[in-house]
Design goal:
The protein is mostly helical. The protein has one domain. Helices cover about 55% and strands about 0% of the residues. The chain has 5 helices and no strands. It has helices at about 20-35, 40-55, 55-60, 65-70, 80-90.
């Protein structure tokens, strides 16, 4: 039996697949519909969208420090609601209630 060479695997990153506003909105909507009670998952999804758009630009538009955004919008982050609102506004997203 011959050995086959395995290629290197790269970690999958949602930010690599969020190409436009519609993708970003659909991604966040799907996360909220799946488990809208998981604040860490929603924060991480906002982080994915912010990285897809460019964290430096999101930091400028939100008035928040880039490093603070990386921390707050990570899987282990715990952003304040004010931070979530600033980020969603900077991203051009709106949170709605149904």
């Amino acid at each position: 039996m011959s050995k086959t060479k395995l290629g290197t695997l790269r970690r999958w990153d949602a930010a690599d697949h969020l190409q436009d506003d519609a993708d970003c909105a659909a991604y966040l909507q799907a996360i909220m519909e799946e488990d809208g009670a998981d604040a860490k998952l929603i924060a991480a999804a906002l982080g994915d969208i912010a990285r897809a758009r460019g964290m430096m630009q999101v930091a400028r538009d939100s008035g928040l420090a880039r490093e603070a955004l990386y921390r707050a919008l990570s899987a282990d982050g715990n952003p304040s609601f004010a931070t979530v609102l600033k980020v969603t506004k900077a991203l051009g997203l709106k949170l709605t209630v149904a």
